[in-house]
Structure to design on (178 residues):
């Protein structure tokens, strides 16, 4: 008898594997198998399938930015002159080394057009980054919020969100944005 699959095609074992790999991507596959009730070869097959289907996009080490000398975290709001600028803006962030401190760039609703998360060495490097952003074609203005302290930061997806996949996400329709 096959286990029940959620709308994404995952079953309870898949979700448990994803949760455990997200918590510790270095966990031994034999240990993972013990936790989900599968043999090591079966876990290898499941993990390979999850990778091939795009549920697992990669494996990463979580680095301590402050320990590495990146003491400034900031969120930069960017207003653009025209929606057409957004695609070109993203390409420039990805290709130019002066924007390596940009960790995330999100196209958001309302004002501003874009929201960036950055981690950088100090206020001088933050100032250089803001100047470089403002010099890009189509950028009308920026506004920066510097983080004083981080109260909660979760890498990846919340475990509750992963578990709720089985119930369709708590009954909410997530298929479209209003």
């Amino acid at each position: 008898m096959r286990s029940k699959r959620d709308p994404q095609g995952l079953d309870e074992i898949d979700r448990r594997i994803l949760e455990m790999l997200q918590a510790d991507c270095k966990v031994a596959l034999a240990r993972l198998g013990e936790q989900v009730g599968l043999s090591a070869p079966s876990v290898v097959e499941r993990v390979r399938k999850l990778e091939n289907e795009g549920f697992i996009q990669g494996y990463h080490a979580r680095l301590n930015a402050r320990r590495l000398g990146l003491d400034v975290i900031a969120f930069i709001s960017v207003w653009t002159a025209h929606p057409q600028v957004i695609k070109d803006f993203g390409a420039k962030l990805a290709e130019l080394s002066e924007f390596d401190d940009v960790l995330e760039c999100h196209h958001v609703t309302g004002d501003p057009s874009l929201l960036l998360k950055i981690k950088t060495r100090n206020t001088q490097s933050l100032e250089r980054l803001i100047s470089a952003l403002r010099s890009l074609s189509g950028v009308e203005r920026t506004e920066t919020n510097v983080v004083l302290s981080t109260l909660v930061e979760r890498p990846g997806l919340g475990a509750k969100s992963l578990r709720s996949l089985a119930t369709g996400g708590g009954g909410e329709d997530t298929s479209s944005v209003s």
